Amino acid sequence: MNRFDRITAILIQLQTRRVVSGPALAERFGVSLRTVYRDLRTLEQAGVPLFGEPGVGYSLAEGYRLPPVMFTREEATALLTAEKLAARLTDAPTAQLSGAAMDKLRAVLRHADRDHLETLSPHIQVLTPTGPADGPNAYQLLLTAVATQQVVRLRYQAADYAAPETRAVEPIGLYRGRQWHVVAYCRLRQAFRDFRLDRIQHLETTTEVFAARPETLQQHWQAEASRRPREKVVLRFQLAALPPATVQQLHDTKRQYGWAHEQLLPDGRLEMTLLLGSLPYLASWLLPYAGAVAVVEPPALREHLRELAQRAHDFFCAPENMLT
Questions:
Q1: Are residues 14 and 64 in contact, defined by beta-carbon separation less than 8 angstroms?
Q2: How many CB atoms lie within 10 A of CB 200?
Q3: Which of residues 208 and 216 earns the better pLDDT score?
Q4: Cβ count within 10 A of residue 210
């Protein structure tokens, strides 16, 4: 990045945040702190009203704004991808907001770049097994509740309960694995819980504001990992015995099951080491790889796999479940 582009980018950072520290700018743009200070002085000399507070950072005078900076074609393409993801992986309100934002972006693009996006758009697709889940538009409501610290009342169907329950929760963040989840302090359980959005039957935000919590998603996951005992699991996969799509599925999902590291053995098998706290959970993942996976340790995992396979055999081979 040349100096002109870097100074412009620094100004954008100042317009998008209340306070920006010098070290943060230096790290972001890969330059020295001295270079950042020189660039900030250049902005001041150009008439940009900067305020600096020692030990805190720099900010712009309230109300100071420059006209929108033109997007590059690469930036516009990245936002087009984000629009496609929002349309398929969030809820209807978020998809509509993303589309409206993209319309504003297209309005300020040069004609050539606008035509480029229109040509490219049909060639970017986000495929999911189902689209956004039916039911309440939970994603956007929960995002708002996280930002405003509003208590949320939801009716939730847990996997291990026959009947749904009503919970009052204090959400701290959302994340996506195979499904969208919200991590929240559950007042019913008096502890943090992880809720899947596709299991929320009804949701409403209340007017009650909860006290800010210092916990973040990262801190929650670290606490959960330290609370649960983890057991070492060693597996050996015969990848040549699996279709390529199944091998790809193995690598796409292994981190959800405690993957730690792996190595290719001289005989061509892949030895994988995992650390996790639930062997039955792991067994349900491994069953589709039957015939191509061997359990090195622990022996208890083999027993879980045997029981799971026996249950499947008993069910599908029962006379009442067989076609005649």
A1: no
A2: 23
A3: 208
A4: 20
Which tens digit of pLDDT belongs to each residue from 108-154? Answer: 788 888 899 999 999 998 887 554 444 568 899 999 999 999 999 99
For the stretch 35-44, what's the b/e string if a residue is b when 16 or more beta carbons lie within 10 angstroms of its beta carbon? ebeebbeebe
pTM score, whole prediction:
0.60
Alpha-carbon distance of 121 to 109, in angstroms, equals: 15
Question: pLDDT for 278-296, tens place per residue?
Answer: 899 899 999 999 999 999 9
Distance, in Å, from the CA atom of 236 to the CA atom of 240, rounded to the nearest integer, reads: 12
SS3 content of the chain, % helix, strand, coil (to 5): 50, 25, 30
Closest CA relative to residue 259, chosen from 285, 280, 294: 285
- CA distance linking residue 61 with residue 145, whole number of Å: 29
The C-alpha atoms of residue 306 and residue 311 are separated, in whole angstroms, by 9
Nearest to 167 by CA among 128, 144, 193: 193
